[in-house]
Request: fold
Amino acid sequence: MRFAELTTVYNELEATTKRLEMRKILSGLVQRVARSELAEVLYLSQGLLRPEYERVELGVADSLARRALAGVTGTEEEKIRQLTLESGDLGLTAERLFAGRAPPAEVDSRTVAEVYAQLRAIAESAGEGSQERKVLLLSSLLECANATEAKYLLRFVLGTLRLGVREMTLLDALADAYAGGTKEGRRRIEAAFNVSSDLGIVAEALVDHGLDGMDSIRISVGRPVRPMLAERSPDLKDLLERMDGTSVLEYKYDGLRIQAHLPAEGPPQLFSRRLEPISEQFPELLRELPRAIRHRPAIVEGECVSVDPDSGELRPFQAISRRRGRKYDLAKAEEEIPVRLFLFDVLLEGATERMKEDYPERRRRLEALVRPDGSERVALATQQRVTELGAATQFFDQAIADGCEGVIGKSVAPDSVYRAGARGFWWIKYKREYTQALADTIDGVIVGAFAGRGRRAGTWGALLVAVYDPENDRFESFCKVGSGFDDETLAGLKARLRPLETAERPAEVLTELTPDQWFRPSIVIELRGAELSLSPIHRAAFGKLRAGVGLALRFPRFTGRWREDKKETDATTSAELLGLYRSQVRQESSSPADEAPAS
Ligand code: AMP
Reply:
């Protein structure tokens, strides 16, 4: 496919806010593109060069991109800077400067593969002189570009492509193109994506073998599996009932989820809940995991928690969050904030995929896999099989006393397989907060802000926050939150959100409110509130309870927790919010005796 053709499709995508239309455009695109370029087109359209978990970065700063643009168009860099200040987008500036410019005829036929190879070369140039090489490579890409290509090339290298094309929409498009748009086809395609986290591999297998190819996509060391997620219950009684009276309750550790991949040889690789490679951040786990795990290759999952070095007691989430994203003073951090990984699942062991085995079997395998005295840093999650409420309540109280957030009930049913990327009632969380006014905290995505007044002049007075609707790939507002921000957070709020500012409402954001500033949905914050109520101005679960109304969180408060471990699509979903609303209504109408046990 010619690169010019791809960028014409990007223009079409940009011109629509309708998801169905986007889906149609994308399914047309994936059908037209040759197999050899399919993976590349899928990555590029998401603003990526490789699947997201590989975190391949272009390493092109604004100034470097301006320099390349200045060289190619013969425009002063300062002029480019000024023009971009006005438009807020170097891509638009490039489009303007390139207007009417026809690329030489022989390069007009340049293919996606050729452009992709050059973009990879930009990403791969590192070390001494790499800045110059990057400028040269980008300049040569621009030399051959028309105005539209130039716009998208610059946005791409700066990481601001933002076509609003997320994985779920691409999966829809693939299902339309290769599985007749059937629900079952879509489900199988998504399942293959959930174990591979790589749309390129999925798409190629679809082209080669159709839907049957989906079953051939296997879990593989080095490729993170999308994590299985938990539903919630308003109380332990409900939890037990949903599990037909028997559940294995486990401590719900309050830390960071880690998926550890141990290859047959060589150091382990660690992935975060959002599939980021985080190996460097936990050198002690890289050392200790091979001691603790008997067979390799293996993929295991657990929660990493900070522990008190003297007493071994669990420390709150805030402690381990100081180790997240850290690049410097790693040795010092390791010493000051020691951690322990509590393993709760095994996905692969040797050549055997364990994901398809039921939970009790996986736990047995996990117990056999982990050497009890292998390492102080690696342990098994504490658990207990319960069949009645008294024992469940006791275990929950013990979990809280031991510094956990609550418990996770695990189904022991024959179908309790590891469901990658899925939220369901095979895992049910029940947290301490559920015993307070509104059951549970909500992880919301910041989509807008309102200017502050008085003491808050110069910063944001309130944030507009949304939940995620995976079905339609949309972010739906559910509250305006101004409480719970301490002075330090407030002082840094503008700067923190600035990179996400955007002049218009992003197409994927739904709300009836117009904030002073819009943000691209990206940052997740944890909120607590008094209750959920019906609202005509918020769009969460809109029309699901009654026509023309959505759900809103009353008296929302920021808990102080930035959920950096979650990306925007990991936020609370509108379906979960609806579930919370319903359980709130149920609780209100039930007698106090039915209420959750107080901790
Ligand atoms: P939440 O983040 O509130 O949706 O709760 C689910 C999270 O709890 C998982 O993603 C894990 O990070 C964490 N967790 C802590 N302990 C366990 C456990 N024993 N089993 C599964 N997940 C756990």
